[in-house]
Amino acid sequence: xxxxxxxxxxxxxxxxxxxxxxxxxxxxxxxxxxxxxxxxxxxxxxxxxxxxxxxxxxxxxxxxxxxxxxxxxxxxxxxxxxxxxxxxxxxxxxxxxxxxxxxxxxxxxxxxxxxxxxxxxxxxxxxxxxxxxxxxxxxxxxxxxxxxxxxxxxxxxxxxxxxxxxxxx
Length: 169
Hints:
Elements: H1 2-34, E1 39-47, E2 54-59, E3 65-76, E4 89-95, E5 110-116, E6 119-122, E7 129-131, E8 135-141, E9 150-160, H2 163-166
């Protein structure tokens, strides 16, 4: 009988300690979700000259994360220039990257339009949000796309994809 009591007491002590540890972990996790923490990431994409339209894929956030796009820079090749490229217009998209878009762009994914190259598009805040199932990409259209290679960079703020994290942006 005494052995059974000792075993019951040991189990109660074990579960009591486990509950304390779990409560402590939950408090840490709650603090993690409610305190601001974010990573600034710099994205880069480059494609060779091609027939219009040209797609530059800048990637997608990992699972459970989202990007708040702060800035997108478009340029010819990797050279700095202030002269606008003739017959080229650009748009910024968030969604599924098209494999063969031809002239059919997914207008529902368009977040910025009618940009001339070179361009420096400032976004910030919640104006462009890219979730884990979406890609950030640039589409260049026009007769001038075959004349040069193209590059795009983006600065994004990477945060957890939670309703609390959206308040930080």
